Structures are given as structure tokens and as C-alpha cells.
């Protein structure tokens, strides 16, 4: 029975929440429809367990689909129960967590089930930007149901049993499951931008618990702050030599070296996630050129350019942070745009979305230039010209229109190599040095890498009370 601990749906809830904190609601609800022999079928809780509990003392509301009841399919009462979870969460200002394990829409209930699915969509849309929404796919999640995790702020998939797809792999022309399992967790994590992490059931539950500790319960709480025992002036060694992998940089500057990465397998040339500085949750967006494995060996390498996927990933994350009053830190190391046919089809729109996201965000915004910062790609990455409150730069950073040698070749196309070399040095000194940008007010402070933590702590403390009046418009359109 779904209301007992023998149900996987209930076991997942119990493992996620603080001990003895779960309170089930609506356990006596069953399917209302009697068509097509449903009256002869036992439907305890109509295949979904709902209720509320605590994660590290924080109130959360939760629903968990039970695949042992009609394969976890969504029917009229099933959907009404999920909708009621959202109603309660919105009233209480608390996150919603959904565990998905569902064979789709219940055929026996036809349009009633379809209407129920639409009700879930409506509740998710109303909750977007008001309370955090987190989902995890532990079984099947196909067709229209994939809209549910895609509309959530964060989503995880169990690596072996989790399946997420709009169209099943074998229904896609020219494809089959053996050729490319488009429903598999790894494919979804890398390609769709809908997945924040994959792993075993226990790993996912642990990730959700950690994620909740970074998030405010709702958009009216303001930024989340807790006590910090870490040294605020702690020196961060080796940052300069590891600037290519912002995961390392962010872990080093963060309180207790904790960095929670989001969408970690998708668009890996752009890193997003959460850190704490002096106990305050900070959203981080960073260009990435290198990825190191657990043994410290270089695993992947990327050009320091903006890609369409990277821009879309970052824009979505910045929008989330702005909605929930989470300050934003950007680490900039970019010199241009990805040049390929696939990227070119989407790049202009994606760049516009990221530029809009940074420009429109009213939360505290700090930009740290760690390497190259050239051209309009740099402008898009949270530059002072589009609204960054403070811009810091490491002493070896380069800021300007483009690489000095390339600029010299363009300006002195017919000159000798010696002249070009001389003019490149002159251009670098006058137009591309971090000191030149600082003299013009585009950089507020030049710092050494090992002092990064203390300066960023001080920056966000100063910006803690930032207030920006809303403009007279309903909303933007990007």
C-alpha cells in the first residue's frame, strides 16, 4: 500500500526529510473514475503521496508518485493532490519537491486526466519565481509529463532507472534506443539543459538536501544568510594557476570550500552554482576553459568563448537568482563567440538573453575578471556597462576590444612584422591592460588572486542593502 513504508514512494520521502518530520496529507484519496474496470482496482492515495516535512529544519512540501499503483499514472484525483501541495506551499512560502515515477496520463480517465495535467502546469507557472521548485525523476517521465520537471527550477535524474523523454527513442526517425538512448539520464543531463545532476537515488536525495540549504523558502524572504565560522580573510592559494576551472576557484573562495554546481553536465564551458560568502548564499556564473578530474588531471578543455548553450544556461540561472534575491557573482574569462554552424543558429538570441538577464537583475552584482575580457562578449558577461555594481580584476587580466596583436594587424595591415609587433605592445599598454580599464573607471579594484575571498566578502557585505526601484512595466520580453 502506498501509505506504508513498504512503498518506494514513501521510502524516498522518509530518506529525504529529517527523521520523523513527514506529515502525510490526503492518504485516503482514491480514484474517482469507475470506467474501464477502475472500480475493481485498488488505488490507494491514487498513486501519489503528498505532505510536508523538514530538511535541516526548513519546511518543505513534497509529492512522490507511487509506480505500484496504476504505474503511477496521472488521473484526476492524482493531479488534484499535486495541485493541493502547490496551494499549501504557496500559502506557507515553502519549496515544493516532486518525485516523478510515472507511466504517463491515465488512459481510463481520458480528458479528466488531461485536465489534471494542465492543472499541474498552471500551479507550476503560478509558483515560478515565488517558491523554489525541485524535482527528481526516479522512473519513467515521458510525453507531456516532461514539462513538469522542465518547469521546475532544479531537476535530478536517477542514473540507472530514470528515463525522461518527450518522444521515446524508437519513435524518432533514424534513431533507436540501442543507437542513442535519448531518454537516458546521461543524454538528458548533457543535451537538454533540464537536468542539474544524475546519480544513485541516495546521491540525488543528498544533493536535494544540500541544495535546499542554499535556497530561501520564497521570494519574500530576501537573501539567505547563516552563521559563518570560516576565516573571512583566508588567503586562497594557487587561484591564478587554476583560473581555467572556475569550479576550483569558487570552491577555494567559498565558505568551508563548498560549491554546489547546477546543470553540471550541460554546456560545461559555462559554470553555474551556489557558494556562501560570510554565510550569505551567492549565485555564481563563470566562463570555463578547463575541467580537472578528482586526481587533479586535466579532463576537458574549451575555448574561452561564449556558446549558445552556455549563454542560455547562465541566463536562466541569473533569472532564478534575481527572482529570489540571491546576489550574483560572475567570473569572466572570455574573448569572443563560438564559431560553428550549430551555435550560429542560436547565438544571437542566447547572447541577448544573457545580456538582458544581467542587465535586468536588481540583486547585488559583482564581476571578477580572471583572465581575458575582450569585446562585446565581455560586455555580456556582467560588465559595469550593463549594470555590475562592482568590477574587480586580477592583476594579470587583459581587458579591451580584442587581442592586441590582432588589433595591430587590422590597423596596420600593410606594415612590416616589426611595426606590427611594436604597435601591438603599444595597443596592449594603452587599450588592453587592466590598469588602463581601471583608470577609466571600468574596473573598481585590481587585486591579487590569493586575496580574492576577502575582497568579495567585503563587496557583497557592502551591497547587502542594495535597493533598486522597479520600472513602470509589466515585465520584459526576453
Overall description:
The protein is of the alpha/beta class and 478 residues long. It has 2 domains: 8-212, 2-enoyl-CoA Hydratase, Chain A, domain 1 (Alpha-Beta Complex), CATH 3.90.226.10; 226-465, 2-enoyl-CoA Hydratase, Chain A, domain 1. Helices cover 34% and strands 21% of the residues. The strands form 5 sheets. Strands 10, 11, 12, 16, 18, 19, 20 and 21 form an 8-stranded mixed β-sheet that branches. It has a 7-stranded mixed β-sheet with strand order 1-2-3-4-5-7-9, with helices on both faces. Strands 6-8 form a two-stranded parallel ribbon. The protein is globular and about 85 Å long. The mean pLDDT is 90.
Task: List descriptors.
propionyl-CoA carboxylase activity, 8-stranded mixed sheet, 2-enoyl-CoA Hydratase, Chain A, domain 1, 21 strands, ClpP/crotonase-like_dom_sf, 478 residues, Carboxyl transferase, 14 helices, alpha/beta
List the helices and strands and how they pair.
Blueprint: H1 8-16, E1 23-25, E2 48-55, E3 58-65, H2 76-92, E4 96-100, H3 110-127, E5 133-137, E6 140-142, H4 147-151, E7 154-158, E8 163-165, H5 185-191, E9 197-199, H6 201-214, H7 246-253, E10 260-262, E11 270-277, E12 280-287, E13 290-292, E14 298-301, E15 305-306, H8 308-323, E16 328-334, E17 336-337, H9 341-360, E18 365-374, H10 375-380, E19 390-394, E20 398-400, H11 404-411, H12 417-432, H13 434-439, E21 445-447, H14 452-462
Parallel strand pairs: 3-4, 4-5, 5-7, 6-8, 7-9, 12-16, 15-17, 16-18, 18-19, 18-20, 19-21
Antiparallel strand pairs: 1-2, 2-3, 10-11, 11-12, 13-14
Amino acid at each position: 500500500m502506498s501509505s506504508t513504508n513498504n512503498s518506494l514512494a514513501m521510502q524516498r520521502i522518509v530518506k529525504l526529510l529529517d527523521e520523523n518530520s513527514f506529515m502525510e496529507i490526503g492518504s485516503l484519496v482514491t480514484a474517482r473514475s469507475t470506467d474501464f474496470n477502475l472500480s475493481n482496482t485498488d488505488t490507494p492515495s491514487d498513486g501519489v503521496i503528498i505532505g510536508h516535512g523538514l530538511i535541516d529544519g526548513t519546511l518543505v512540501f513534497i509529492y512522490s508518485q507511487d509506480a505500484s499503483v496504476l504505474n503511477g499514472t496521472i488521473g484526476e484525483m492524482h493531479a488534484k493532490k499535486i495541485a493541493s501541495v502547490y496551494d499549501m506551499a504557496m500559502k506557507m512560502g515553502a519549496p515544493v519537491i516532486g518525485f516523478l515515477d510515472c507511466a504517463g496520463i491515465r488512459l481510463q480517465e481520458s480528458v479528466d486526466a488531461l485536465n489534471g495535467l494542465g492543472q499541474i502546469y498552471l500551479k507550476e507557472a503560478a509558483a515560478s519565481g515565488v517558491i523554489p521548485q525541485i524535482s527528481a525523476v526516479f522512473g519513467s517521465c515521458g510525453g507531456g509529463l516532461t514539462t513538469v520537471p522542465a518547469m521546475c527550477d532544479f531537476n535530478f535524474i536517477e542514473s540507472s532507472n530514470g528515463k525522461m523523454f518527450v518522444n521515446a527513442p524508437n519513435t524518432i526517425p533514424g534513431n533507436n534506443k540501442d543507437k542513442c538512448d535519448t531518454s537516458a539520464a546521461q543524454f538528458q543531463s548533457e543535451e537538454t539543459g533540464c537536468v542539474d545532476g544524475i546519480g544513485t537515488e541516495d546521491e540525488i536525495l543528498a544533493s536535494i538536501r544540500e541544495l535546499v540549504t542554499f535556497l530561501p523558502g520564497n521570494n519574500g524572504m530576501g537573501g539567505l544568510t547563516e552563521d559563518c565560522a570560516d576565516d573571512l580573510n583566508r588567503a586562497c592559494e594557487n587561484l591564478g594557476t587554476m583560473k581555467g576551472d572556475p569550479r576550483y576557484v569558487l570552491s577555494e573562495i567559498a565558505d568551508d570550500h563548498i560549491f554546489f554546481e547546477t546543470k553540471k553536465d550541460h554546456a560545461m564551458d559555462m559554470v553555474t552554482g551556489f557558494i556562501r560568502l560570510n554565510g550569505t548564499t551567492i549565485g555564481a556564473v563563470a566562463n570555463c576553459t578547463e575541467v580537472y578530474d578528482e586526481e587533479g588531471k586535466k579532463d576537458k578543455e574549451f575555448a574561452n568563448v561564449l556558446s549558445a548553450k552556455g549563454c542560455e544556461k547562465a541566463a536562466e540561472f541569473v533569472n532564478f537568482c534575481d527572482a529570489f534575491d540571491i546576489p550574483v557573482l560572475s567570473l569572466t574569462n572570455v574573448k569572443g563567440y563560438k564559431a560553428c554552424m550549430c551555435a550560429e543558429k542560436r547565438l544571437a538570441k542566447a547572447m541577448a538573453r544573457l545580456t538582458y538577464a544581467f542587465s535586468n537583475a536588481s540583486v547585488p552584482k559583482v564581476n571578477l575578471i580572471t583572465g581575458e575580457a575582450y569585446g562585446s562578449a565581455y560586455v555580456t558577461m556582467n560588465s559595469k556597462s550593463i549594470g555590475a555594481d562592482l568590477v574587480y580584476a586580477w592583476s594579470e587580466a587583459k581587458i579591451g576590444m580584442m587581442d592586441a596583436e590582432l588589433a595591430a594587424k587590422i590597423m596596420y595591415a600593410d606594415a612590416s612584422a616589426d611595426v606590427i609587433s611594436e604597435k601591438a605592445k603599444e595597443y596592449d599598454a594603452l587599450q588592453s591592460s587592466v590598469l588602463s580599464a581601471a583608470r577609466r573607471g571600468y574596473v573598481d579594484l585590481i587585486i591579487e588572486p590569493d586575496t580574492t575571498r576577502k575582497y568579495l566578502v567585503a563587496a557583497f557585505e557592502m551591497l547587502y542593502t542594495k535597493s533598486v526601484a522597479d520600472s513602470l512595466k509589466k515585465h520584459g520580453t526576453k
